[in-house]
Amino acid sequence: MRTNIVSTRASHCAAVCKIADGTLISYYNGPECTDRQAVNLEYWIDKRVAHVRLPDKTGNSVLIPLGDNKAVLIFSIFNDTDGVEIAKHGANRWRFCTNWQTIITIIGDQIIVDDAIRFNFDNYVGHLVRCAPIKANNKWYLPTYKEHDVYGEVFTSTDGWNWTLLSRIGTNIEQQNGRFGKGILIQPTIWHHNETFYSLSRDVSDHYKAWYSESKDFGKHWSDPVSSEIDNANNSIVAIDMNIPEPLIVWNRGYNRNTLMLGKYHNKSAISIQQLNKSKASYPNYCFDNQNSLHIVHTDGIGIVRHILTKEEVASLI
Predict the structure, then answer these.
(1) Strands 248-252 and 238-239
(2) pLDDT higher than 70, residue 123
(3) What is 2-317's CATH number, 3.60.20.10, 3.40.50.2000, 1.10.443.10, 2.120.10.10?
(4) Which of 178, 205, 229, 277 could crosslink 260 through cysteines, CB 3.0-4.6 Å?
(5) Could you tell me which of 76, 83, 62 has the C-alpha nearest to residue 133?
(6) Which residues, in sequence order, are CB contacts of 285 under 8 Å at separation 6+?
(7) What are phi and psi of 291, to 5 degrees?
């Protein structure tokens, strides 16, 4: 496994996808939940080739490869109101985000960012992207979540640009007076094996275990979430979609963010393989590149770190 540092500034919530001859990485930095927070894009081959910064007040992002030298970037913008309520403090701003999408093009050593359009979250505010989308059944499946009175969602698209709400995860289970309102989970990560889809979600109750749900019909209907045995003290988790029922996963072992593990999912539990971080770490994400090498990105300390595993290394772990 090869590791490199993407960013050493106060950076957060990375995403990655294959593009052109390398990979495109997105993350946001600047003081979190302030007007100076903004999404950054970096194009990497063996090293960083190009960098651009989006306008201020932009946040959570995912990337969707379109083939050759293009990708879709979906990202949030702080709006601070839904037309009725107004954001009252920093973290509360996530409740009043809108989402936007744009085409990213690599031309030589330049990153070209098209004008953005509003993502069709049915005109919702406070719905966010976080974990990587997956490709199955010749469609893209994008997991999203509602930031307050929470639950997960899955959108689907045939082209990576036009999206339709397919289903929701965890709308039937609520708690009272939680920090995130009534719901119990956010930030679902999804994977599949043929027509069966699976999800693990970040716990925002006092349960401290990731929530598990499954679908037998390509993500159209999900079982009520049940507790897994995977540690989750309000931490983001990601499963690496490989069209197998028990894929690799990345999660925070224990009840803080001191230990970020690469491991293998097994029967609502996790088998530890290797610790990935050196400092407090969170928010993992991933992609496979054109050589089928696995790229894992995550926050480590104040920066973003990337680990690259060859296809042979990945095969040896599963």
Answers:
(1) antiparallel
(2) no
(3) 2.120.10.10
(4) 277
(5) 62
(6) 14, 15, 16, 62, 131, 132, 238, 296, 297, 298
(7) -100, 10
Closest CA to 238 of 299, 290, 291: 299
Domain ranges in the chain?
2-317
- How far is residue 35's CA from residue 37's CA, in Å, rounded to a whole number? 6
- Token digits for 133? 């989308």
- The rounded distance, in Å, linking the Cα atoms of 167 and 153 is 6
Kindly report, residue by residue over 225-279, the tens digit of the pLDDT.
Answer: 999 999 999 999 999 999 999 999 999 999 999 999 999 999 999 999 999 999 9
Of 121 and 172, the structure prediction assigns the larger pLDDT to 172
DSSP string, 281-292: EEEEEEEE-TT-
- Using one digit for the tens of pLDDT, what is the confidence trace for 78-116? 999 888 888 888 899 999 999 999 999 999 999 999 999
The whole-number pLDDT of residue 129 equals 97
**Distance from chain centroid for Cα 174:** 23
Binned at pLDDT 50, 70 and 90, residue 53 comes out as: very high
Judge contact between 239 and 200, C-beta under 8 A. yes
Q: In the 3-class helix/strand/coil scheme, how is 123-180 assigned residue by residue? A: CCCCEEECCCCEEECCEEEEEEEECCCCEEEEEEECCCCCCEEEEEECCCCEEEEECC
141 forms beta bridges with: 134, 156
Q: Can you give the pLDDT at residue 212?
A: 98
User: Is the separation of the CB atoms in 314 and 273 below 8 Å?
Assistant: no
